[in-house]
Design brief:
Layout: H1 13-21, H2 27-44, H3 51-61, H4 71-99, H5 104-111
Helix pairs in contact: 2-4, 3-4
């Protein structure tokens, strides 16, 4: 039997349920995906972005407590988190434009040659 998501340090039943809703059902799957891809899938499934949750995942995969990060590590984790969230928001906006072609954003993107 595969180790559950909650076997990763810092992740509990809530994380296990959320990752399950994202189609990730084991600790091995998270390790295989890595923290960036696993968290990206979590956001794509509708979960809200929380820096603490992402930091807990990153440090948990290193078997470290969620508060055990140096200032430089926190900056790196924050930079990765911000990039994941930005990528997710861009994907949501583009998806919205595809579904609602009359939106103002769609018109703006068309104006600068990014769509159509």
């Amino acid at each position: 039997m595969k180790a559950p998501v909650s076997s990763i340090r810092n992740l509990g039943p809530v994380s296990e349920r959320q990752y399950g809703q994202a189609g990730i059902h084991s600790a091995d799957e998270i390790r295989s995906l890595g923290p960036i891809n696993a968290y990206s899938r979590l956001l794509a499934s509708g979960a809200k972005a929380h820096f603490t949750a992402y930091s807990a995942l990153v440090l948990g995969l290193e078997d470290r407590h969620w508060t055990d990060a140096s200032t430089d590590e926190k900056r790196r984790i924050r930079r990765d988190f911000d990039a994941i969230v930005a990528q997710h928001l861009i994907a949501e906006c583009l998806d919205s434009c595809t579904r609602n072609p009359d939106s103002h954003l769609d018109m703006a993107l068309d104006t600068v040659g990014l769509i159509k």
